[in-house]
């Protein structure tokens, strides 16, 4: 992996996610447990790049009376690169030990292998609301980091040719405990509480790498990406906020990745760039939690700038005749996905089409298009977290 990227002639340093930190710490802890040798660095694979070198910050080894290693706790410092966020510079720790299955903590992550359990302690939040990618009452460790942790430990087991049956009897298992000493304090500067995550930070990251850019640099890079599409002869473009829309359009609806651009939160900016560059059809496709904002005329979907998801959903459901009891239930939901469950339960699916249609109208009006003179089609496609199509707007 190249350590730096260049945007508009400026140099930006890449970083790595809390998920990569947890996987690296877990891999290092497993290596030390099995070999007894301390290390200063460890290579860890991410979904985007292989063999990322991560420095080990702290190592704490606990021994039995017979001098055999009882547990190993390893700390890694989160480095957000030049895209510094609240978790930049904090320590993410992983402790590995062999324990009786009967002693497993009640709150732990979904099982990743037959001989490995993953839990959390100080500074890692617990999911307390429906609608996230992690079930209620489990550690706030997202699915991709969970897999990275398990795969990293498995890699050490395979490389060292560890005989699991000799290390474990039927009544014991490996336990990984992820922690963050300053996590509870740092979580106050994140959106975790709004999402129903209590007690600390989340271990997140879908690629394992933090790609840094300033907003202006990011926008210029996106404009250049659109321009290259035009030069390739494309007259239709798909704008997606992020990975959910991208993956759904490619794997679910079979669109070509070459026609997709990740626009992040810059909806209005990208619409105007598409108009300037002369695209004949614009798809806006993504999770309803992002694109519902467009239906109310919000052209920058970042939560810090505008987050009116509840108000938009409640207003549209009210116009459909939903009861006050349902509207209050929607208001209590921590996430958009939690709202979807209430909507599905009460057979109010028509709201999805209304939102999609309004989003298309807002996009059209924002671009100041003349229906008689400018032949540009706009289509909105709304997805759930599971990549199911909730609604598609009519062509404009």
From TrEMBL:
Reactions that this protein is recorded to catalyse: Co-precorrin-5B + S-adenosyl-L-methionine = Co-precorrin-6A + S-adenosyl-L-homocysteine
Keyword annotations from UniProtKB, A to Z: Cobalamin biosynthesis, Methyltransferase, S-adenosyl-L-methionine, Transferase
Signal peptide boundaries: none
Organism domain of life: Bacteria
InterPro entries listed in its UniProt record: CbiD, CbiD_sf
One GO biological process term: methylation
Keyword S-adenosyl-L-methionine: yes
One Pfam family this sequence matches: CbiD
Pathway(s) served: Cofactor biosynthesis; adenosylcobalamin biosynthesis; cob(II)yrinate a,c-diamide from sirohydrochlorin (anaerobic route): step 6/10
EC number: 2.1.1.195
Gene Ontology molecular function: methyltransferase activity
Family of this protein: Belongs to the CbiD family.
The protein's name in its UniProt record: Cobalt-precorrin-5B C(1)-methyltransferase
Species this protein is from: Peptostreptococcus equinus
């Amino acid at each position: 992996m190249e350590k730096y990227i260049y945007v508009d002639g400026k140099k930006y340093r890449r970083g790595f996610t809390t998920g990569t930190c947890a996987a690296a710490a877990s891999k290092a802890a497993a290596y030390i447990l099995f070999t007894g040798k301390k290390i200063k660095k460890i290579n860890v694979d991410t979904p985007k790049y292989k063999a990322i070198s991560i420095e080990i910050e702290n190592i704490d080894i606990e021994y039995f009376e017979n001098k055999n290693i009882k547990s190993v706790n390893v700390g890694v410092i989160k480095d957000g690169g030049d895209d510094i966020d609240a978790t930049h510079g904090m320590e993410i720790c992983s402790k590995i030990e062999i324990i009786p299955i009967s002693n497993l903590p009640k709150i732990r992550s979904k099982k990743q292998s037959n001989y490995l359990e993953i839990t959390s302690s100080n500074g890692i939040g617990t999911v307390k609301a429906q609608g996230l990618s992690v079930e209620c009452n489990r550690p706030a460790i997202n699915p991709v980091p969970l897999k990275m942790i398990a795969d990293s430990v498995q890699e050490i087991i395979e490389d060292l040719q560890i005989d699991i049956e000799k290390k474990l009897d039927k009544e014991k298992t490996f336990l990984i405990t992820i922690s963050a000493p300053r996590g509870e304090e740092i979580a106050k500067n994140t959106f975790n509480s709004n999402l129903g995550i209590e007690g600390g930070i989340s271990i997140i990251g879908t690629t394992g790498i933090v790609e840094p850019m300033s907003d202006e640099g990011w926008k210029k890079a996106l404009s250049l990406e659109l321009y290259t599409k035009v030069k390739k002869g494309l007259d239709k473009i798909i704008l997606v906020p992020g990975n959910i829309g991208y993956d759904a359009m490619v794997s679910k609806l079979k669109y070509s990745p070459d026609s997709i651009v990740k626009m992040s939160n810059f909806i209005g900016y990208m619409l105007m760039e598409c108009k300037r560059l002369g695209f004949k059809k614009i798809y806006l496709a993504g999770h309803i939690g992002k694109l519902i904002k467009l239906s109310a005329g919000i052209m920058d979907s970042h939560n810090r700038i505008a987050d009116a998801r509840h108000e938009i959903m409640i207003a549209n459901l009210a116009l459909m005749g939903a009861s006050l009891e349902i509207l209050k239930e929607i208001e209590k939901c921590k996430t958009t996905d939690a709202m979807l469950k209430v909507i599905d339960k009460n057979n109010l699916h028509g709201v999805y089409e209304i939102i999609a249609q309004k989003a298309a109208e807002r996009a059209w009006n924002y671009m100041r298009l003349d229906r008689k003179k400018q032949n540009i089609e706009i289509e909105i496609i709304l997805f759930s977290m599971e990549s199911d199509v909730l609604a598609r707007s009519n062509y404009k």
